[in-house]
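Good morning,

Both structures are done.
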Amino acid sequence: MRIYVATAIAVLSLLSGCEQQPSVCEGPTVRDGVVRGFTSDQSSAEYGLIKNLQLKEIRTLQKDESTGVTECAARLIVPTDRGPLDSPIEYRVGPSAKTGESVFMVFTLSKEVEELWGRVVFAAGQTTTR
């Protein structure tokens, strides 16, 4: 019995030390970059909603080894008073010219993302007219 307990403790301590590093698609500049991709007008009602966006189910689609640019995809969720708005989103991250660290570059303006933005604008209008 002591062997099983000792083995279990050893395995748990190994697993607890193996924290998974976030991928470049989850980097610290990504979320803020997506927000700025929609609007940088911090006084707008749309910004008031989009600034709270969440990226879920983040995954890497492909990486260009020659440029260091990584194509990513995620589920974009914008919380609102009337429930969350969500859409798939694809975006790119790449190395900073100054530091070499991965930074958000651009997101793909797909039909789904355009429709999401329309719903954000509508929800922002509903919020400001209360």
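Second structure follows.
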Amino acid sequence: MFNIKNLCTTALIICLFQNLLSQIETKSTFFDKKIIAFGEASHGDGAVYEARKELIKEYKKYKKDSTLNILIEMPQSMCYAIKDYFSGEIDSVMLLKQARYFGLQTTSFLDFLNTYRNDSSIKFYGIVCFPPILRQ
């Protein structure tokens, strides 16, 4: 469904990201870092996934032959599901059923993954920062 707010947010985030890259003296100062954190607070907004794609595209241009490990807020078990999806063992319906978080149960997330489905140099890993819940 077309949503002008999401479209404008996507355009704004991508413009801000491109502006950030153009202001960095050399891209090597940005892409030579061991960890590049790119957070989000919207959990599933398509604009965030579009901005991540732009970041990854720029990284791949700069570091042509390197492997890129992507950490996403999700259980590691979801990464196994992504691996199964990429290999064709499960379909997109099953993949989204295995997602526990709302932001992973979206077509935006699926579109993001499909961008890298045939790129073996990109690996996905899950990281969850929730403290354990103690029951009384």
